[in-house]
Amino acid sequence: MTNTPAKSYFIPNLPPPFEFETVPVLKALAKANRALAELKGAAKAIPNQAILINTLSLQEAMASSEIENIVTTQDELYRADLFPDSPSSPAAKEVALYRDALRLGFESVRTNRGIIANSTIIDMFRLLKRRDDVYRVLPGTELRNDRTGETVYVPPQGFKVIEAQMAALEAFINDDDACPLDPLIKMAIVHHQFESIHPFPDGNGRIGRILNVLYLTRTGLLDTPILYLSRYITSTKGDYYRLLQDVRDQDAWEAWTLYMLKAVAETAETTLQLVEGLRDLMADYKLRIRRDLKKIYSQDLLNNLFRHPYTRIEYIMRDLDVSRPTATKYLELLTASHLVTKHSAGRNNYYINTPLVALFMRTTSSRQSAKT
Predict the structure, then answer these.
(1) How far apart are CA 105 and CA 121, in angstroms?
(2) CA nearest to 7, candidates 142, 135, 136
(3) Does residue 99 register a pLDDT over 60?
């Protein structure tokens, strides 16, 4: 099939010249903000926020990578994380790199007082793709329809042009006074602008999805990066790409904004269920360990079992500052009490918090079932 030229789209100045605060948008905005506020409050009940960041970031890494047809299983990914020196699939390695890029971005934003700098975005790209270049240099980048091969969009060409547009986007992201729009509307604009600039040779979709949650944390809508839209986007992938292009072709900002607000609201509700389930499961484990294994109970031990759904002797040694024999004893006692299940990989043993992994699987399944 012969490719047809894509309609020209000129990257707009920010904010775009559109009346975003329509009645449908304001209604969707109220719902999304309520859902986010409820999630933010529930997250504070988890005593160690690293538990949420570690466990949920891995779920996001899997979902975001699935959009790019990088598919791995939860079990493979956790085992690759446990034994980084052992052979693992390219997909598992790609997903782990996404998780690491997300963490890098959050740490950078936190240490830079909420600033999302282009240098951070570049660092995330370099980590994700394991390369040391910056923005696109070579001309000829086109976005094509996967099914027909037709060119649907030609992003800006040339390093200097991309650099200038990314500088303007950086200013828009970090200047809270220049634009009176609600942060969630602004997030939708930022995401579309980034994807339209398409600054990198590869990985733009995944970096753009990381930007979403970093923006939510910099604006204070969340304290930690625990709302990830990739599972929603995966289940509505056709709508996502169509609406991105409709803005370029038809200036359809309202439909795009409504899509993003719905994604926030539904994802916040799903994540709230997961956080509440995690909180209840932690409370149950705390009760059972204190009742049945009182001599080994500590908050550090409890945190370990939930920060690392797949754990190993070395993790217990490190997190609890105990010897190998002591760490081994703890895990054997937990296994005997059916709080973890013991598995072997070669000469190495590892231990799975099976109810926690099942909670992740149920949440993922319910999200997928709701869209089928």
Answers:
(1) 7
(2) 142
(3) yes
